[in-house]
């Protein structure tokens, strides 16, 4: 009997393991989610719409993500990594404080404003999304303040300009009539005012 038991233990096939989707496969769905948010808003973020945007089946989706909840959690964190953490890391590499302020304007202009507007609406209905959205805003404010502090050496003044910059960004993203040229102009005006106050000559941009 001992030998029979051992025999069956040896021939029993191992349980099948669920394969893991590649990072590239997951990113396709995450990028699609940001696109859906931009085009259809928070209310339009549905499984069928995301799959249609990718050109894939729901089966493929569930190979990449175990559930819709897992996907939406990954989506909001992906947005923060790509549109807050990564740009801040890029700006950190700019050592000259004045050039860094100019670089931050470029970042503000190229952010996915439609997606971010939808995320701000989404955050009003989902506490987990709101936590990440607030963290991203605070992270941005802190870095902008640090950049102005490098010019002024005064934290109170730096915080004031950082708050003004965030007001401009959030207001622009939440507005119904956007004028990119005007947004760029007002951001430049804010930086120029700060540099004038600090007695710094703004470099000419080619």
Automatic annotation (TrEMBL):
Molecular function via GO: DNA binding
Domain spans labelled HTH tetR-type: 23-83
Superkingdom, natural source: Bacteria
Annotated InterPro entries: Homeodomain-like_sf, HTH_TetR
Keywords: DNA-binding
DNA-binding region(s), chain positions: 46-65
UniProt protein name: HTH tetR-type domain-containing protein
Organism, as annotated: Gordonia insulae
